[in-house]
Amino acid sequence: MTVSRFETAANYVILIGFALVILAPIGVIVTLALGPERFSSGGGLHFENFARAWEVGRFGQYMATSVSVAAIVVVVAVTASILAGYALGAMTFRGATAFFYLFLLGIMVPTEAFIVPMFFDMRSLGLTNTIWGVALPQIAMSIAFGTFWMRTYFRGASRELIEAARLDGAGSWRILWQILVPIGRPAILTLVLLTFMWTWNEFLIPLVMSPNGTVRTAPLGLAFFQGQYTQGTALLAAGAILVALPVVVLYVILQRHFIKGMIEGAVK
Amino acid sequence: MTDTVAIVTGRRARRPPARVTRRRWLPYAYLAPALLLYGLFLLVPLGRAAQFSLYEWDGLGASTFVGLDNYAAVFQSAQLREAFAHALVLIVFFAVLPLALGLVLAALLTRARVRGLGFFRTIVFLPQVIAMVVIAVTWRQIYAPEGPLNTALRAIGLDSLARAWLGDYDWALPAVGLIGTWVSTGLVTVLLMAGMARIPREQYEAARLDGAGAVREFLAITLPSVRGEITVALTLTIVAALKTFDLVYVTTSGGPGTSTTVPSYEVYRLAFTIGEVGAAAAVGIVLTVIVFLINAVVNVIGERR
Questions:
Q1: Which superfamily does CATH assign the domain made up of A67-218+247-266 to?
Q2: Residue B114: pLDDT band by 50, 70, 90 thresholds?
Q3: Among residues 42-61 of chain A, which lie with CB inside 8 Å of chain B?
Q4: CA separation for the pair B131, A180 (Å, rounded)
Q5: CATH architecture of B78-256
Q6: Where are the domains of chain A?
Q7: In this predicted model, what pLDDT tens digit does every residue of B198-216 receive, in sequence order?
Q8: Cβ(A236)–Cβ(A225) under 8 Å?
Q9: Closest-CA residue in chain A for B267?
Q10: Is A204 in Cβ contact with B268 (below 8 Å)?
């Protein structure tokens, strides 16, 4: 099919225009981050802003918290999701459909619906201001999506392969870990990426679950940095980039998986 | 075993026997860890929220049973009604506007043979992976009185338009909304492009032969073919609009006055700032019901042919 030159040219204009609109705010924050901390301190690129922000904004500490929370949530939620998705996707049992809908419910429920009693109940259990208080609600939310995601994968997994393995005497545990998980690596990797991203970027749960700030994650550190540090925008911008960087770097490296995951996981 | 039972009882087994195992308790064992964590830390709190919403409680002292009074307050309080109205405005910015833009963009981009679509797809998804707090901090700088937006407006002689965007009673909500448009449009566009790529080229060629113009073609072929993608896109973006918390918290804290407050911000404020825990739970439950209703409506419309 032929498309007129005019149409092609118009498409490039639209494409470039749209890309610029997306990139402009990112350009603004990078420019600010590399600018002088005060107008008097001269021109050039100020890469030392990142080191200063890291120190002044205590991002080292907040990043460490974020890494710990993300590691716990990803490991626990993905493992539990694989097991549950295996049961729902590859086994037949009474109540399977009901369990499926139960998990589906959790994908749609907004955090705001359960955060209030969650805080007070966690407080009476002594779990607020601990890493578990921040991680457990996110584990529960990630399991809802993860189970749905893994169920879809296990339903599509080859029946013949499972039958063959069973005839060879493999039990369900071995079939799962030695056959289905290795060939399901793309699906599992996508789940790991999405869970990591959602956990790293989460704001409301760490804000509520650690009222005294002992378990402050990087996004919260940034929000409070903005509140306290009002003299200059350079350090704030540098801090913003530090918070965004881990996910953005992962995204750029693995963007194929990310985009696939975002489109297919669009149910969330 | 299952077959024997079916013969004896005269009923046919409704499903094929288990593929992986014959041990009946096994599926439940695999399900148990997920169910336990999900149940304890999501389902139980959700049930507790319904319970909390029937009490008046300041989070410290004794609680009083008040029945549905907290729900009545949601509809009577001007500030809460306003919060829900703002959420509807945000739906326009987060969902409707991106859908309109996304349809046009995706239609143009799928039909065209242009280089660099891979790069474009990567760029367009960036706002989806950047933490909302980072986005909020960035846009605060852009909207600042001496920020790039006002500088640009003054540079092209539109001084009269320059203002403190987030501090303006009339402009703060649209300003926050436009951030949502910036975040959602890429997602919607790529979703729609994925749908449009599946439409067979012959359909377009046939339409062209019948003398259909670009607009007719879009309305008769493209639009009906991406109903499913539109449904998904709307569901996602509407829910995102209704759940906006971090964006509001970081950009405006609901202000100036109450001009940008939203239900999720009210949940936080009621429970943790002014100590009306029951009312906060009620707002959360109402918000959930609205999310479910909108999901249901969008899906019913999306599936009707």
A1: MetI-like (1.10.3720.10)
A2: confident
A3: none
A4: 33
A5: Orthogonal Bundle (1.10)
A6: 67-218+247-266
A7: 888 888 888 888 888 878 8
A8: yes
A9: A112
A10: yes
